[in-house]
Design brief:
The chain is of the alpha+beta class. It contains 16 helices and 23 strands.
């Protein structure tokens, strides 16, 4: 019964988006909701023509958040979802239409620059101060031609220092310019450390070398299985300078290393001040109905009294959290959820949970835990580590000199359990992912967990490597090292504020810390030279008739990986297949060197068939058309050969079985003839690279 109640409660909490903090007395929550609705309608110009409106509520000690939904059952207006806090800060916005409208062209009507301008204007309309303190994270990267929207990301700046944990995500329709999605994560009531008290960059780098440092590591190479389905390739190793102290940074105020283990990337929902400006619009009957739902909620003091009487608990039980939320199974009901804890001789904790109807005080569920684990740590960390080492020797005596324990985290004293990681090391080189994990129960002085990961294959020879000083230069100059703000949880401060802003020196985001020990190149997760997601700018296409289309494909990620396109060269089958594959998977991680895997994927999709693979053969026009029509899934229509009339003067030169392919491609304006009333299509013409780009562009955007 206890288990059923606890699972029931957890499900309710999860589905109601409940904050884990407490709730203050919300006796005026109906007024707050009314003000929030009116402000949202005014700022976002939401019409009174919507005939359906519903809402949810989520409250904590810090803030009440309202989730407001406007729905047009006639499906003439877009559905709008907004979350707004009780101070009028709009946290999220989502607009969607019931019916998809196919654009009349695949080319966007709104440019990327126009889209970003629209996004910034929208942010400024919601909060001018926020708009002044963001920078775009939208580096010049390929667009997604398969999406109807531009996606934008903005990072918060505190003066000149980035705070990556705060920011805004948005999407703008490429064709209409409408903002379709908005989400802000913004800490409004936090204290940022004074940047003027920070140590210098040089001191930060020096501390990194001394306290965190680079290590020689055999890194595993990975190929993403979702990138090329059904891939089962062998994992290889490559030698890099990286760090085994991953997740560490230098505190810019003290110069000492700190663990980022309790750093979180995105903050809780924003809470802050805002002017309501609510008198210009009226409350509709549907909106009034939702406001009435939260009117008359009992004060928390009355609810707590009912809870204690029901649970039969005294004041030795401390009320640790109290939440107000919409019940997931009955959306019209609002509930209080209370959580109590009681210390039991400092050896354990007794807890109790209870849910009550927020208006009537009726008890809905509770769970009172009394069966505690007794006992305390009987050995300290050093003794636990000795126990782990003894166990390691017992099970793996031959691994004694092949592993190294490195304490890189601030571990709590007198813990009941410790988890120790022994990293595998081959002479002076660590092996990525290899090692032994041992967990120690300090109450019973026993090993409670154990695992070993150990690659038994042959590792590549060390060979000649660059110096570690050169590796540091590459880290600091090419990968980048910067001063930034981060959010941290204080896991020891149970009752007080658990989040703190730290000023740290650490690696810049964007590039992997994988420095080839052979030549100093920055490598990706596959061990190949890292390529930033910028748009390729070709240097040799000015004299090509297909210049604009070659450039257009590159803007959407359909491009070769260097600055030479060689438009006048004939195109090899492997290069055509690469461009075609990129048109299907513009964000795929494969490059020209992965051509065998690309062929495999195209073969799985029946775009190229058995016996057709000839990577180093030139591609004719009819062959290119055949592959494209298959990519469009039109091959069954194309292969009904006798339904097509004669439209080409040189039709006799088309290979058997490909007349339908050529006719479809001509009709879809993927290929063109020579301009005559009965055109020559020249099916056996060996395409130049500019011709291939022209055809693939027509396939993608026509």
């Amino acid at each position: 019964m206890k288990r059923t109640l606890s699972l029931f409660m957890i499900m309710a909490l999860l589905l109601s988006n409940i904050a884990s903090t407490g709730v203050y007395a919300q006796t005026n929550v109906d007024k707050q909701m009314e003000e929030a609705i009116l402000k949202v309608k005014d700022i976002l110009n939401i019409s009174d023509e919507y005939d359906k409106f519903d809402s949810r509520i989520n409250a904590s000690d810090e803030m009440t958040t309202f989730y407001l939904n406007w729905i047009d059952t006639k499906e003439k207006l877009p559905n709008i979802r907004v979350s707004v806090d009780s101070k009028g800060n709009i946290i999220s916005y989502n607009k969607n239409y019931s019916h998809y409208i196919e654009p009349d062209t695949k080319l966007p009507k709104i440019s990327l620059e126009e889209g970003e301008k629209i996004a910034r204007e929208f942010i400024g309309k919601l909060d001018k101060d926020v708009e002044k303190n963001i920078v775009s994270k939208n580096e010049q990267s390929p667009f997604d031609y398969q999406s109807q929207e531009y996606n934008f990301n903005f990072t918060r700046m505190v003066g000149k220092i980035p705070y990556y944990d705060n920011g805004i995500r948005m999407s703008v329709d490429k064709y209409t310019g409408e903002v379709m999605y908005y989400r802000i994560d913004w800490d409004r009531d936090v204290v940022f450390p004074d940047v003027n008290k920070a140590i210098s960059m040089e001191e930060g780098k020096k501390s990194f070398k001394e306290n965190i440092g680079l290590d020689l590591i055999y890194r595993r190479s990975y190929n993403l299985k979702f990138d090329i389905p059904n891939s089962n390739e062998k994992t290889n190793y490559f030698l890099v300078y990286s760090t085994m102290n991953d997740g560490m940074a230098i505190d810019a105020l003290t110069g000492k290393p700190i663990s980022l283990r309790y750093h979180f990337d995105m903050a809780k929902e924003a809470a802050g001040a805002g002017d309501s400006g609510v008198e210009e619009r009226a409350i509709t009957p549907q909106e009034r109905k939702e406001i009435d739902k939260v009117s008359g909620i009992k004060d928390i003091s009355e609810i707590e009294k009912i809870a204690r009487e029901t649970l039969d608990i005294d004041n030795s039980y401390k009320l640790k959290s109290k939440n107000l939320y919409s019940y997931w199974q009955n959306p019209n009901e609002i509930q209080w959820s209370l959580y109590f804890e009681k210390d039991t001789d400092k050896e354990g904790m007794t807890t109790a949970n209870i849910d009550l109807d927020a208006k009537t005080g009726e008890v809905i569920s509770f769970y009172h835990r009394l069966d505690l684990e007794k006992g305390k740590a009987s050995i300290d960390k050093d003794q636990a580590l000795d126990l782990a080492k003894d166990y390691l020797l017992k099970l793996n005596p031959d691994k004694k000199d092949s592993v190294e324990y490195r304490s890189i985290d601030d571990i709590e004293k007198d813990s009941k359990i410790y988890n120790f990681r022994f990293n595998r090391k081959d002479e002076d080189i660590y092996i990525d992912g290899d090692g032994i994990n041992i967990g120690v129960d300090t109450v019973n002085k026993r090993i409670y967990s154990y695992s070993k990961d150990w690659y038994n294959g042959e590792l590549p020879p060390k060979g000649e490597i660059i110096s570690i000083d050169k590796a540091y230069d590459i880290l600091f100059q090419q990968i980048g090292y910067e001063l930034k703000y981060i959010s941290m949880y204080d896991r020891y401060n149970i009752d007080g504020e658990k989040k703190e802003i730290k000023l740290v020196y650490s690696q810049k985001p964007g590039k992997p810390l994988n420095i080839s020990a052979r030549n100093g190149e920055i490598l990706d997760f596959r061990g190949k030279p890292f390529r930033e997601s910028g748009i390729i700018s070709y240097k040799d296409i000015d004299n090509s008739y297909a210049k604009d289309k070659i450039k257009g494909l590159a803007e959407y990620g359909i491009a070769f990986g260097n600055e030479e396109f060689r438009p006048k060269d004939k195109i090899l089958q492997k290069d055509f297949m690469y461009l075609l594959w990129k048109s299907i998977y513009p964000y795929g991680n494969q490059d020209e060197e992965d051509i065998d895997r690309i062929y495999k994927e195209l073969r799985n999709q029946s775009i190229i068939r058995e016996g057709e693979k000839a990577p180093d053969r030139y591609v004719t026009k009819e062959e290119a058309v055949k592959y494209i029509i298959r990519a469009m899934k039109y091959e069954k229509i194309a292969e009904i050969d006798d339904i097509y009339r004669k439209i080409f003067a040189d039709e006799e030169h088309i290979s058997k079985g490909l007349r339908g392919y050529m006719s479809l491609a001509y009709g879809l304006d993927i290929i063109q003839g020579d301009g005559k009333p009965t055109p020559n299509i020249n099916p056996k013409y060996e395409l130049k690279r500019e011709d291939a780009a022209n055809i693939i562009y027509n396939y993608v955007f026509n």
